[in-house]
Every structure is written in C-alpha cells, then in structure tokens.
Specification:
By secondary structure, chain A is mainly alpha-helical. Helices cover 67% and strands 0% of the residues of chain A. By secondary structure, chain B is α+β, with helices and mostly antiparallel strands. Chain B folds into six domains: 36-166, no CATH class; 185-214 and 221-263; 273-424, no CATH class; 432-497; 503-647, Nuclear Transport Factor 2, Chain: A (Roll), CATH 3.10.450.40; 649-726, no CATH class. The chains are: A mainly alpha, B alpha+beta.
C-alpha cells in the first residue's frame, strides 16, 4: 500500500487529534453542565469549531486541555443564556440519563446526580477540578476567575455536595 | 493521596453513569465541514477572461525564470509583503484576494514550483477567488518540507511561526525552539522512545519511518519561563498492523511527568465496523475519495469479519462498503482515465474538482464511480451548483449510467458505493426526511394546529448520534420553536413546543430564533424590531431597553456600516481585531454605531461611533458572563438609568468598583464583594460603601449620578483591627498560599465528606 497520506493543514491535523483525545470527556462535561444530550453534542461540536477557527490564537500559552475546557465551559454558558434553554425544564432524573454500556452502582449514580444539582458556578469548578483533573491555577485560567475564587467555589461545592448526598439539601 | 482518590472516584462516577455518552466518530468531519463554510473571503472576484489569462501565463512562466528562488524565499520575498500589504486598512485581513493569490502562484511558477491542479487553492484561483493566507503558505511549506507541521523539524516549525507573526496572523512570537536551559531535541526524542519501549516493548523499531510518521512538538507554557516548557512525540502508523504511540513530558522533570499513551489495535479480536473505518481514516485520511483502489479492497475484506450495528444511521455506509467489491481493474475494464474523462464530460462543469474514481463490483456488475466536488463560488450566498457529485460509468460497456448530486438524505457512502448497494444498505434505517416526518407527526398529536412540515413557516433540522434530535425552527416571530427526539426505531419522545403568544418579553428571543445571533442582523431587522416593540408592554429590563431605544435606517446617516466598523477597530488601537456586533441606535445629537469588538484581551471593548462625525463617543468593556447583552444595542445613558432604577445603586456601585479595582484581564473580575462574611455594604442615597470587616482589608466607596454614571470611585484601608477568623472560607479577592496548603490537608476532603 503506497497511498500517500494527505497531511491536511496544521489546523486539521491538530484539531483531529484533539477531537480524538478530548471529545468524550468534554461531551460528558457538557452534558453535566447542560443536562441535555443534544445540546451537549452541539456544545462539543461548537467547542471544536471555535477551537478550529481560533487556532491562530492558540500557541501553547496554556495547555490544550485548559484551552478546550475554557472554550467548552464558555460555550455551555452561552447555551445556558439562550432563550430556548431558559424556556425548558432541564432537571434530569436517573431515568433520563443516556443508556450506557456500564450499569452504574448507586454511589456513582448518586454522586453524578448530586453534581448535576449543584449551582452552575460551583458545578463548573467541581467538574474541572475532580473530573478534568485541572489544578486551581488552570481552572482560574479556564474560567477567567481569580484563583482564590476557584478555591472558594471548590469549598462551597464540596459542602453542597456533602449536603446533597446526605439528603440535607434536596435542591441546590 | 486523598485528592487523587477523590478524582478517581469522580471519574468512576461520571464515566459509568454517563457511559452511554461517547464521542462522535464523524465529529472531525462535521467540524471541518462547518469551519470551511464561508472560510474563503472573496474581496474581489476576477473576470473569467483574466483568470484564463493568468492560468495561461502560469503554464509558460516556469521556462522564463533565470535564478530560481526556493519555496522559503518565495514565501519571504513575495507572500509576506503581499500579506502585509493586505492589512493596510484597520485590523488584519486573513485572506489573499484573487489578484494577490494569482501573483503568488505566478511567482511560484516562475521559480519552478507548481501546486497541484486539484487542490483548493488552485480551485479558488480558477474560480477567480482569493484564499486564506495561512493555508496558502502552509501548502507551499508542505511541498518544501514534506509531511505536515508537527512532522517538520523544530527549526522549520519555528520559521513558520515567525512567518505567521510577520503576516499578522498572530500578535506575538512564541519560540518553537528549546533554549539553553532546556533538553536538546536529540535527548528529548531519545527519552520519549525509551519511555515507549519501557512500556510497550524493547523490540519496537521506533526509528523506522516507513512504519511510523513522527510528529514532534516543543512548547512553552509561558514564553518568559523556560521551566514551563514541554515536549510531545507522537508516532502515527502508516498501516493497520502497528499501533499509535504518544509521549508527553515537561522539560524540567521528564521522568516525573512523562505520560505515555498508545492505541494498539488487535484485528484478530472481534471488532466493529466503526472501529475499522476509524482506523482506516486515521491512517489514510478522511478524504476517502483519495484512497487507492487497494485500500477500498482491504476495507471491504476486513468489514466481512466486523460487527455492524443494525439500525444506526452511521452503519449504513459500512453496510454499503461490505456489500460492494472493490476489484483491481483488469483487461476487460474501461481504463480509469477514460472513465474520469467520460464522467467529467457528463458533468460538464469546469469548476468540478476530481474527488476520486473507484472501480466497484456488485451483483456481477462492474462500475466506475467517479466523484467530483464543486466548491461554491460565493461562499456567503446559496450556490446550488456546489456539492458532491457521483457519476457512474459501466466499466464493461463504457456507458454512463447515472449522474447524481448528494442530497440531505444521503450518507457519505453516496459517492463510494454503487447505487443498488447504497440503497440496499438503507433497509431498516431511518433517513433524515423520514425522521423529520415522524417527529412532526408525533408533535402534531399533541399540538394539531402546528404546520411543522411547511418550509415557509419552519426550518427542519435533524441531527444526533445515537438518536435523532429534530428541531423545527420557526421562521416567523409569531410562531415558537418545536423539538422532539426520535429513536433509531422511530419512537418519538421529548416533545417541547413554545406555544407562548407574542409579547414584549419574548419578542427579543423570537427575533433571535428567526434571524439568528443579533450580531449578524442587518440594520433593517433592528428597524423592524423597533416597530414591533412599539405596541408592546414589556416587563423585563432587556425588553424595556429595546423599547426605549430607537433603531434608525442605515440610509439616514452619513457613516455607513462598513466604515463604522473600520473606525471602531481603529478606536481600539489593536491590529488583530474583529467586529462581533454593530448596531445603529438613535442618540442625541446623532445616531451612534455601537459595536462589540473582539480583540486578544479578556475584556472586549464596546465602542460607540458617532454616525455623522465618526468620532468615538464612548468605550465600555464587555465581560463574558458579566456584562449584559443590552450594552451592545442601547446607549450607556439609557441602560445605566434603567439599571439604576431596576437593579439599584449597590449593584451599580459594585460593578464600578470591580471594574476599577479588580483584575479586568479575568473573564469574571471579582473582588468578592458579595461575600457578606467579609464585606459590609452601606448605602446613603447614590453613594455606596463596601467596608472590609477584617484587619488589612480595603474599603471601597462609589458615588453615582442620577443616570447611573460613576462620579467618584475610591479605595481606602479598612479601619477594622479585628483579625479574620481562621474558620471562614477563603477571601474572594485575595489569595493565600497558606490557606491553600491548609485546604489540601483539610480533614473534610471530598472523599471523606461524601463517603
């Protein structure tokens, strides 16, 4: 086989790699943020489209993961601000979750549902810290907030999660 | 470590709970296709005669050159000056226009360098269009250096980066070369290979470039800090028998930070058709039309052993490829070139670029499938002649069997499987049009009056991965949107319909729904909105501002839209800037163009330009998630008065204090003034004070006028002598490393707290 591999542009190559590497965790991140599968898929597509179009602005001054998380979180925020989003009830129940290949145990399900119930600002930092494995410094950069605010929100998010899981706070 | 345990737990919880959510194998294709829409900016189209003259000149130019320049010299001596000349106006123009492109291609030709006839750059030129500067330069670099960007040497990558800065594509230069305090390239590569071998086998012949293509990257997290530099090495296989390996590590601590990753396929184990096609695309690219005949043959053969989903729409192409044979042409077959020629004549469009020509065999019939792409001439307008076309030529008789254009219902297999196999592969799978009809029928059961299939009233959109999400987007502001989800089996669920009557508060969102993002509205839409709002009684602040603002016709002012945009960019003093929204609003003494401009800073300027004099009337700053949209379409005096009345002086004072004293480079500048454990708010009419409760904190005082404008905004030291209690959460505006350490050791960490 001697078919030459058409290299495509730098953008194409990089974005293709980024999609391969990050799209599934970003999809799950967006789903928890938006609590709507179609919107989450749209948000991920939008995220990579923005990354594609904004490729010239990215040159390693943050990590790729931080850069994409920044775009994804802001894309979700844009979606949440939209009139159509506000118009509909977004509360997710376990039965509404996309059918998966693995059956989650009760603890996992409870924790995921609790994260989804957190207020948006707390949910963002909890997800980025515990699910995207980002440092408080990276989160501050991704969300465009002070590092101290990240820590503050993390602490409040953890308290809220604890209350939710212990049944003290039914609706964050 | 406790933190890792918590993260591990969160990963497990989310990844198992959401295991049904996985990546979209077509995502790159979708993103790439959307990104290409409207990418070519046509500044000036050349006449057909001039295009022909240029092409003819290009054909003979190579023979007249005496001293030949290299690719790099042509780029530096011709492309860069052209790109710089291109940016003479406000901002940076990212595309060569048609004349500049022709000049560059002519220079290349004069120096013995030719671009492939079928690539998009030459297509653009033949269509009399310009093309994206970076893409043109990249294409020439590819010819010079081979491979793609990350396969180039670090010196070549660095040279390209410098070129990008010169043409204004990037504001600042960031080195691609390791400095004296960094590892050498040779040491970094040797380390990366050693890590791969330690993990995946000492016998791996990683240096063999006939097996793997090597990509390398050196990057700096912070241009001023060499210790934050990192490396990435990726080995992409050139065939299906080898795996992909990747190593990333920080320059300062390679051993401690090395992250080794591999994707090693095992085709002796059961595999799905999707996995197989993904692997083919990773190796032979997504441009399937360019695949050699033997690659199609191999795909067909390996698909026989694969598992293919039954009713997923993404399984249709796989079924089609599995049914279709892709034999090597024999003596009895029409030669490939003849088939292409016949197909080209049948299509009869000089703009058609060859996509591929594949010999297929299905139910004993051998057919050539010749595909062409016709790119739109005017990307911003509808061009019905553009699209993907497939011409079928009988390989035995030489007869042209059919010529078809890909439609909205068609899959990607449309051009790569014969029509009979293609149609058979659809059996039991819902097509897009069927899904839309099912969704409309389902919604109609609950809302019988909705005429969702009427294309004059609604735009029908359907997409999704494992089930379809159908949206009916209303084209008339009096109608609301509707949506539903349709499973692959045709079950309709999740129906949502906006049935609200039109009123002052939903008028704005209906305009968004009908005309899209307001930044793209023509001024006539604003004029119409103004008229529609006249009879309404809105209650929300946003809608009240729309009602209180007038939107004049563009023809009523001296400075027009385009000129206003240029003046706005000039007012920012930035080179790389883009006008995101630009609206003409009524104001005294003249109407003002209000525009939000995207720059490389975290805060986007919102600039007002007098539509008669061209003077800058005001500059505000737009913060994501912080500044409301209405600053982009109402005058500051209007929205400030309304905010003062609706949201009150404390809110406006807080914003003023934050804008003056917080770090405005952040998306959400924050002094933490909402944290009542730290701040006491006092109000005296239009004067508001935020007093720090603890020793060492600040006091802020802001005074507003009756229109909400800031008269005075000051900072002083808090008079408090009381120490801040240790058990309070961290302070919003200040960061304490000691506190961070304390928090890391907090006994109430997440895993314990929720355990």
């Amino acid at each position: 086989m001697d078919a030459a591999k058409d290299p495509g542009s730098l953008r194409d190559q990089t974005i293709e790699r980024l999609i391969e590497q990050y799209q599934t965790p970003l999809l799950r991140l967006c789903y928890i943020q938006l609590q709507d599968r179609a919107l989450a898929e749209d948000a991920v597509q939008e995220t990579f489209l923005k990354a594609y179009k904004g490729f010239a602005q990215f040159r390693g001054d943050s990590s790729e993961k931080t850069w994409l998380a920044h775009i994804a979180v802001n894309t979700c925020r844009d979606f949440q601000r939209g009139a159509w989003f506000r118009h509909t009830d977004r509360r997710v129940t376990p039965e509404m979750l996309p059918a998966g290949t693995v059956q989650p145990d009760t603890e996992d399900l409870d924790l995921s549902m609790a994260v989804m119930k957190l207020p948006r600002k707390l949910r963002e930092v909890i997800l980025l810290y515990y699910y995207q494995d980002m440092s408080t410094e990276e989160i501050a950069e991704a969300l465009g907030i002070a590092q101290s605010s990240v820590s503050h929100r993390l602490r409040r998010g953890r308290e809220k999660l604890r209350n939710l899981l212990e049944g003290r706070d039914q609706d964050a | 470590m406790r933190e890792d345990l918590s993260r591990e737990r969160m990963h497990k919880a989310i990844d198992t709970t959401l295991s049904g959510l996985n990546g979209d194998p077509w995502l790159f294709q979708r993103v790439s296709a959307r990104a290409r829409e409207g990418e070519t900016k046509v500044k000036k189209k050349l006449s057909t005669g001039l295009v022909l003259a240029i092409v003819l000149v290009l054909l003979v130019a190579a023979s007249v050159a005496v001293t030949l320049l290299t690719h790099q010299e042509v780029l530096e001596q011709v492309a860069v000056p052209l790109a710089v000349e291109n940016d003479a106006g406000a901002g940076v123009n990212e595309s060569f226009d048609a004349e500049q492109l022709a000049e560059l291609v002519r220079s290349l030709n004069e120096n013995g360098i030719t671009l492939e006839e079928n690539n998009r750059i030459m297509q653009a030129l033949q269509n009399g269009q310009g093309y994206y500067e970076e893409e043109v330069i990249m294409e020439i670099c590819r010819q010079a250096f081979g491979g793609y960007f990350y396969t180039w040497t670090l010196e070549e990558q660095d040279w390209f980066e410098r070129l990008m800065v010169k043409i204004g594509f990037r504001e600042t230069y960031i080195s691609y070369l390791p400095g004296k305090d960094n590892m050498t390239y040779e040491d970094a590569e040797a380390f990366a290979f050693r890590k791969i071998r330690e993990e995946y086998g000492q016998e791996l012949p990683l240096e063999d470039r006939s097996i793997w293509q090597l990509s390398r990257q050196f990057y700096m997290m912070d241009p001023d800090d060499p210790s934050g530099a990192g490396w990435n090495f990726t080995l992409d296989p050139r065939d299906l028998d080898h795996g992909q390996y990747s190593v990333s590590f920080m320059d300062s601590d390679p051993v401690g930070t090395a992250d080794v990753w591999a994707n090693i396929p095992d085709w002796t184990q059961p595999y799905t058709g999707e996995e197989l096609l993904d692997a083919f695309r990773a190796i032979y690219t997504w441009e399937q039309g360019h695949w050699a005949q033997e690659i199609w043959g191999k795909l067909h053969e390996m698909l026989q052993k694969s598992v293919i989903g039954t009713n997923s729409r993404d399984s249709q192409p796989l079924r089609a490829y599995r049914m279709t044979g892709y034999p090597e042409p024999g003596e009895g077959d029409l030669p490939k070139e003849t088939a292409i020629q016949k197909a080209k004549e049948t299509l009869g469009n000089s703009r058609a670029a060859l996509d591929g020509a594949i010999l297929t065999e299905y139910e004993g019939e051998r057919l050539w499938l010749v595909s062409f792409r016709i790119y739109p001439v005017e990307e911003e307008e509808e061009d019905d002649s553009a699209g993907l076309f497939a011409v079928t030529v009988n390989s035995t008789t030489g007869e042209v069997v059919s010529s078809r254009k890909q439609g909205a219902d068609d899959s990607e297999a449309f051009a790569y499987a014969p029509e009979a196999a293609y149609e058979k592969a659809w059996e039991g799978i819902l097509r897009r049009s069927e899904v839309i009809r099912l969704a409309a029928d389902g919604i109609k059961k609950e809302y019988p009056d909705l005429d969702l299939l009427n294309e004059e009233k609604y735009e029908q959109m359907a997409d999704g991965l494992y089930s379809w999400f159908v949206n009916f987007k209303a084209k008339d502001i009096r109608l609301g949107n509707a949506s539903a989800q349709v499973s692959m089996d045709g079950e309709v669920t999740g129906i949502e319909v906006d049935t609200e009557e039109l009123n002052g508060d939903n008028l704005w969102s209906r305009y968004w729904q009908t005309y899209g993002y307001f930044g793209e509205w023509d001024q006539s839409v604003w004029v119409q909105l103004s008229k529609d709002m006249a009879g309404m009684e809105p209650e929300s602040l946003e809608a009240k501002l729309l009602k209180a603002t007038t939107y004049p016709e563009e023809s009523s002012v001296k400075i027009q839209h385009q000129q206003a945009k240029e003046l706005g960019i000039k007012a920012t003093g930035k080179r790389v800037a883009e006008v995101n929204t630009c609206t003409l609003v009524g104001a005294d003494p003249h109407p003002v163009w209000i525009m939000r401009i995207l720059t490389d800073t975290a805060a986007d300027p919102v600039v007002g330009i007098d539509a008669e004099t061209g003077e800058t009337v005001f500059t505000e700053y737009y913060k994501v998630d912080y500044t409301p949209h209405y600053v982009e379409f109402s005058m500051p005096v209007v929205w400030r008065s309304a905010e003062l009345e609706t949201l009150g002086a404390p809110y406006m004072a807080k914003v003023a204090i934050t804008h003056k004293f917080a770090n405005m480079e952040l998306d959400e500048p924050d002094l933490g003034l909402d944290y009542t454990e730290d701040w006491e708010m006092q109000q005296d009419g239009l004067t508001v004070r935020y007093i720090g409760r603890w020793k060492g904190m600040k006091c802020y005082e802001a005074e507003l006028d009756e229109n909400g404008f800031v008269i005075r905004c000051e900072e002083s030291e808090s008079p408090s002598t009381e120490e801040r209690p240790d058990d309070l959460p961290p302070r919003g505006g200040e960061w304490s490393e000691e506190w961070d350490e304390e928090w890391e050791d907090d006994p109430e960490s997440l895993d314990e707290g929720i355990g």
